[in-house]
Amino acid sequence: MANPKHTIHVGVSAVALVLGAILSVAIGDPTVALIFSGAAFSGIGYWLGAAAQRRHG
């Protein structure tokens, strides 16, 4: 079963992607989407790195 903390990280990242897309359309500036997606993928990368490190010692 997935660790609840990891599930929360992935959930927050997904919400950041959607929020960035909505804000970029509302504001009309794609830079907003880039900022939010960068933060989201940083969170996903952190989670994947932690999961890989835990599996491989």
Write the layout of secondary structure elements.
Blueprint (H helix, E strand, L loop, with lengths): L3 H24 L2 H27 L1
Helix pairs in contact: 1-2
Overall shape: elongated
Q: Based on helices, strands and strand pairing, what is the structural class?
A: mainly alpha
Oligomer: single chain
The biggest sheet amounts to: none
Instruction: Give the beta-strand count.
Output: 0
Distance between the termini: 19 Å
- Beta-strand content: under 5%
The arrangement of helices and strands along the chain is: HH
Rg is: 14 Å
- Report helical residue fraction: over 70%
Low-confidence stretches: none
Number of domains: 1
Put simply, the count of helices is: 2
Describe the 3D structure:
With 57 residues, this protein is an all-alpha fold. The protein has one domain. It is built from two helices and no strands. It has helices at 4-27, 30-56. Helix 1 (4-27) runs antiparallel to helix 2. The longest helix is centred in the C-terminal third of the chain and has 27 residues, at 30-56. It is elongated, with a radius of gyration of 14 Å.
Keywords:
57 residues, elongated, mainly alpha, 2 helices
Summarize the structure.
This protein has 57 residues and is an all-alpha fold. It has helices at 4-27, 30-56. It has one domain.
